[in-house]
Write a structure and sequence with these properties.
By secondary structure, this protein is an alpha/beta fold. It catalyses: 6-phospho-D-gluconate + NADP(+) = D-ribulose 5-phosphate + CO2 + NADPH. Its EC number is 1.1.1.44.
Length: about 475
């Protein structure tokens, strides 16, 4: 009996996905470029299972049922292309290659078309959930060549996480690079969520002077509110964790954050498409600032930086902070879906926004209770442009607005950096302003560069140029939009 699917790459994610597939009754053929890792896996975590090892790509291909399904769980970029180039000569028409790594979506678009010309069907599937998710049920976001979906659907949906109603957090996203684009935005929202939580932590610790046990208890309580989510849950666990000396471990971790690039890609795509993804982009920059540890230490001494303690009732401040965090989190998702909508229309993907929210309901890093409310919002109104306009989320934002302003204003007053919470409320203030000072900006552009402007007393699309000094000419520059 031949294998149902082959998996290349035996790092943590690859191994756990294989074990997950085996648990669901699929026969998996495992391969790794370092052959010894295949035997180590078979004699270790895979011992006693139905998993079969392959010691060459040819052996992997020979052991698979047609049409062959091969999933790559390797580092994004050149490594994926290298394996594809080695596999193609060994495969037959209609075989399927699945890339389950964190690929940049233009690469998945390119691979879909290049492989289609060779008769091979390509699927770019974003996988989220980390080690635990891969083992017990991740969120999976497949896109690419839709002809492959009926063949990979039974496997991917079987291993995916399930909502409380039993719906798989895996469904076809769209053609070309749509799956990896949605995964990229997921990771961008993840960046934003994590930074927002860190800002709340610093407000409590440095502003309110709370200890780690108090913060552990607060996050545990918050996880039973609308903030119920995986990241809030693990934050409570982290804040309550003691090292071998009985002291909070997180306090001893160096405050320099790493990143792998998906947050940066999200920000770049937002700029390319003209979407104000302010919160997520600030979260990327916050990691960049954190990496400048030595510079921060020196500059802090230069400016004699201190954080003023926050006075007043701490219980009231904690509740205000919870509301500020909740409202900011809604803005993060709202901006993320604005980007997804723009990309869908730009690339003609016809993405289903409600189903996208469902993909993230369980299994992934940003899984949270209110993703069900996001799904409901887009099912009620598929044309919803701004998530905050949905009645459920609008009411939350309006109820939280006073506390949100109070917290961000106090943070600035006391010297606590809150780039994401402040950018979120600034975005909302701009997005809800009928008139912004961009009229002056356009006048400036026209003054120094003859870039023209539109007038409020004339139809849209009619452009004007003024000779502001009497010395300039009447020739206007070309007008264009981002």
């Amino acid at each position: 009996m031949k294998g149902d699917i082959g998996v290349i790459g035996l790092a943590v994610m690859g191994q756990n996905l294989i074990l997950n597939m085996n648990d669901k009754g699929f026969k998996v053929i495992a391969f790794n470029r370092t052959i010894s890792k295949v035997d180590d896996f078979l004699n270790g975590a895979a011992k006693g299972t139905n998993i079969i090892g392959a010691h060459s790509l040819q052996e992997l291909v020979d052991k698979l049922e047609k049409p062959r399904k091969i999933m790559l769980m390797v580092r994004a970029g050149e490594v994926v292309d290298d394996f594809i180039s080695q596999l193609v000569p060994l495969l037959d028409k209609d075989d399927i290659i699945i890339d389950g790594g964190n690929a940049n979506f233009p690469d998945s678009t390119r691979r879909t078309h290049e492989l289609a010309e060779k008769g091979i069907r390509f699927v770019g599937a974003g996988v989220s959930g980390g080690e635990e998710g891969a083992r017990h049920g991740p969120s999976i976001m497949p896109g690419g060549n839709e002809e492959a979906w009926p063949y990979v659907k039974p496997i991917l949906q079987a291993i995916a996480a399930k909502t409380p109603e039993g719906e798989p957090c895996c469904n076809w996203v769209g053609r070309d690079g749509a799956g990896h684009f949605v995964k990229m935005v997921h990771n961008g929202i993840e960046y934003g969520d994590m930074q927002l939580i860190c800002e709340a932590y610093q407000f409590m610790k440095d502003g309110l002077g709370l200890d780690y046990q108090q913060m552990h208890e607060i996050f545990s309580i918050w996880n039973r509110t609308e903030l119920d989510s995986y990241l809030i849950e693990i934050t409570a666990d982290i804040l309550g964790f003691k090292d071998e000396n009985g002291e909070p471990l997180v306090e001893k971790i160096l405050d320099t954050a790493g990143q792998k690039g998906t947050g940066k890609w999200t920000g770049i795509n937002a700029l390319d498409l003209g979407i104000p993804l302010t919160l997520i982009t600030e979260s990327v920059f916050a990691r960049c600032v954190s990496a400048l540890k030595e510079q921060r230490t020196q500059t802090g001494k230069l400016f004699n930086k201190t954080i003023k303690p926050i006075e007043g009732n701490k219980t009231e401040w904690v509740e205000a902070l919870r509301e500020a965090l909740l409202a900011s989190k809604i803005i993060s998702y709202a901006q993320g879906f604005m980007l997804i909508r723009e990309a869908s229309e730009n690339h003609d993907w016809a993405l289903n926004y409600g189903k996208t929210a469902l993909l993230w309901r369980e299994g992934c890093i940003i899984r949270s209770a209110f993703l069900g409310n996001i799904r409901d919002a887009y099912e009620t109104n598929p044309d919803l442009v701004f998530l905050g306009a949905d009645p459920y989320f609008k009411e939350i934002i309006e109820n939280c607005l006073d506390a949100w302003r109070k917290v961000t204003a106090k943070a600035i007053e006391c010297g606590i950096p809150m780039p994401c919470m402040t950018s979120a409320i600034t975005f909302l203030d701009g997005y809800t302003s009928e008139r912004l000072p961009a009229n002056l900006l356009q006048a400036q552009r026209d003054y120094f560069g003859a870039h023209t402007y539109e007038r409020t007393d004339k139809p849209r699309g009619e452009f004007f140029h003024t000779n502001w000094t009497g010395k300039g000419g009447d020739t206007a520059s070309t007008t264009y939009d981002i």
